[in-house]
Amino acid sequence: MKLRVSAVQYHLHTIESFEDFAHQSEHYIKAALEFETEFILFPEFFTTQLLSIKGENGRALTINDLPSFTEQYESLFSQLAKKYNVHIIAGTHVINVDGKLRNTAHLFYPDGKIKTQAKLHITPTEVDEWNMSPGEGLEVFETEKGTIAILTCYDIEFPEIVRMAKAKGVDVIFCPSCTDDRHGFHRVRYTSHARAIENQVYVILTGTVGALPTVDFMRANFGQAAIITPNDVPFPPKGLLAEGEINHDMLVTADLDLDLLYQVREKGSVTTWRDRRVDLYPDWEK
């Protein structure tokens, strides 16, 4: 089985209305569909662009205002997924859950159904500056093209959670990210490669580019999309199907061959999933 995926390097810039955000988002979807893509990934925190809209009396919006856009956000991407018959991982959006802010990834199915995965590991900035709360559990999502998970940015730096996802049958991990400098970017990029090798899965990664001069902690972005494979003979030597140009407004597209994953898990040069020493550390399949 094959599936085609596209990852958006979303360009953040100041906008004047929700309609501006909607038009930009649909632009990327239309561009991806020119390549007949089936899954489109947007970055983490890309909806912070909405905070560049001026509030009443010219008031600057803050992270606490972002959940007020949730209904419009969900309606927009649900409609777009149905209109274009495509799966959209619409990055992350900050929602309010029982008075707590949660950085939450959203999966929109072609029939308009919505599934969510809250970020499980929260960075110090998210805690100290934005008062974010972590999610409470790992979800996996069944699609017509197999089982996927969505692990946001910092999540991919924790091997245990990806082990758990693979044990639940996941073949493709979508990783929306948002990093403001080279250090953060490379942490996420290097660990994405590690997780692909350890678990013999695909990792689809993307990040924000551009800047939001009026939004705290979104004034700088350093991003690049990548479609990452295990490192074995059927795949490219660097474990990389495609990558974007750093900090450019663009998207990347590639085909994922799930049969190749199953082949290397059984007969690869290394069989990292099968060769786990579960006598020494937890077996997440049990």
Automatic annotation (TrEMBL):
<feature type="domain" description="CN hydrolase">
    <location>
        <begin position="3"/>
        <end position="258"/>
    </location>
</feature>
<dbReference type="Pfam" id="PF00795">
    <property type="entry name" value="CN_hydrolase"/>
</dbReference>
<keyword id="KW-0808">Transferase</keyword>
<dbReference type="GO" id="GO:0016746">
    <property type="term" value="F:acyltransferase activity"/>
</dbReference>
<dbReference type="InterPro" id="IPR036526">
    <property type="entry name" value="C-N_Hydrolase_sf"/>
</dbReference>
<comment type="similarity">
    <text>Belongs to the carbon-nitrogen hydrolase superfamily. NIT1/NIT2 family.</text>
</comment>
<dbReference type="InterPro" id="IPR001110">
    <property type="entry name" value="UPF0012_CS"/>
</dbReference>
<keyword id="KW-0012">Acyltransferase</keyword>
<dbReference type="InterPro" id="IPR003010">
    <property type="entry name" value="C-N_Hydrolase"/>
</dbReference>
<protein>
    <submittedName>
        <fullName>Acyltransferase</fullName>
    </submittedName>
</protein>
